[in-house]
Design goal:
Blueprint: E1 13-15, E2 18-20, E3 27-31, H1 39-51, E4 56-60, H2 64-76, E5 81-84, H3 89-97, E6 102-104, H4 113-126, E7 130-135, H5 141-144, H6 150-167, E8 173-178, H7 182-193, E9 201-202, H8 210-226, E10 232-233, H9 241-254, E11 263-266, H10 277-288, E12 296-300, H11 306-309, E13 315-319, E14 323-328, E15 331-337, H12 341-352
Parallel strand pairs: 3-4, 3-10, 4-5, 5-6, 6-7, 7-8, 9-10, 11-12, 12-13
Antiparallel strand pairs: 1-2, 13-14, 14-15
């Protein structure tokens, strides 16, 4: 499946030790919802995100105290960090001096030309990439007054900010164009992808709570990724940010773009099901959620058809009446009571990877 999607050719940059764009894997990132000034709490969440597979973490830098806290946070972080800066160029300079790996900053929003030059000069000297982040809800007034589609306004805003950086001979650029409307987001990225070669960070902003947010992000990001557009992604959820990482990898795995961790499959329930399939499938996902091997595990409700229907899976279980089967590549390898199914599945998987 990896060969089925031809990715857009983009310039490669680095955020810390993570390659972005070009032939690099599409990376999954998230953002802390902690007060950056609280170093211990912020580091705790960064570590939780890193353990879940997150590769880049963004931090809000609202004031000088937050920018100062970056010094210690950067030293102890297991993953590269991005400072989210709005309007105050001095915070960007402070963040760079304190070791930040990248900035999220729109150069047109930080004041005088000389202030922009100070930030860009330091970023260029330290090889610190800048992500231009266009949000549909906060476009420049002159663009909002134009009678053109919102997606085109977003692209024009991005191109204006890009031009500022290019005029200063700076090209360590990543771009995002986010809207809470899925179709607007898709169209904006399609348009910008034709006009620039910089890597693109995908996201549907303000996507919502867990269920609705994952659906919107899956449709928006999935559509673009299937077209080969996108170099990093964030699934924006009103939820523990660890859930964003899990959803991000699931989207990439569904398209064959990443293979980290387990790919879970399970059949829908039907009249042939003689086992509590819904509960069983949830227990299987919980048991193996941190298993880091790129395998497929199936949970099937029918002992007659299950193993054959899921023969593409590396391992799986199929329910019967008060009992079930454990299978491997479609071949049944064990028959056990229902309450021993997961235990037996774990035993067989563990033995296979010793």
């Amino acid at each position: 499946m990896l060969d089925m999607i031809k990715r857009r050719n983009s310039k490669q940059i680095r955020i810390g030790d993570i390659k972005i764009g070009g032939d690099a894997p599409i990376s999954v990132q998230s953002m802390c919802n902690t007060d950056t000034r609280d170093v211990s709490t912020t580091l705790k969440q960064i570590n939780e995100l890193a353990e879940s597979g997150c590769e880049i973490v963004r931090l809000a830098v609202l004031n000088k105290d937050a920018a100062e806290a970056l010094k210690e946070i950067v030293k102890k972080s297991p993953v590269p960090l991005v400072a989210d800066i709005h309007f105050d160029y001095r915070l960007a300079i402070q963040a760079i001096n304190n070791g930040i790996n990248a900035l999220r900053l729109n150069p047109g929003n930080i004041g005088k030309r000389e202030n922009v030059e100070k930030v860009v000069s330091l970023a260029k000297q330290q090889q610190i990439p800048i992500r231009i982040g266009v949000n549909a809800g906060s476009l420049e007034k002159e663009l909002m007054d134009k009678e053109i589609p919102l997606s085109e306004k977003m692209v024009q805003s991005a191109l204006k900010h890009i031009q500022i950086l290019e005029d200063l001979d700076f090209d360590l650029i990543k771009v995002s164009l986010k809207s809470s409307d899925v179709l607007t987001t898709i169209e904006a990225y399609r348009l910008i992808a034709q006009k620039i070669e910089y890597p693109l960070h995908l996201g549907v902003t303000e996507a919502g709570t867990l269920r609705g947010g994952i659906i919107k992000s899956s449709v928006g990001l999935g559509t673009l990724l299937a077209e080969g557009i996108g170099d990093t992604i964030r699934v924006s959820l009103t939820e523990n940010p660890v859930e964003e990482v899990s959803a991000g990898f699931d989207i990439l795995k569904s398209l064959g773009l990443r293979t980290r961790g387990v790919n879970f499959v399970s059949c829908p329930t039907c009249g042939r099901t003689q086992i509590d399939l819904i509960s069983l499938a949830k227990k299987v996902e919980e048991k193996f959620k941190n298993f880091d091997k790129p395998i497929t595990i199936a949970t099937m409700g029918c002992a007659v058809n299950g193993p054959g229907e899921a023969k593409h899976a590396d391992f799986g279980i199929a329910g019967g009446i008060n009992e079930g089967y454990v299978f491997k590549k479609g071949e049944i390898v064990a028959k056990v009571p229902e309450d021993k199914l997961i235990e037996k599945l774990e035993e067989i998987i563990t033995k296979s990877y010793k």
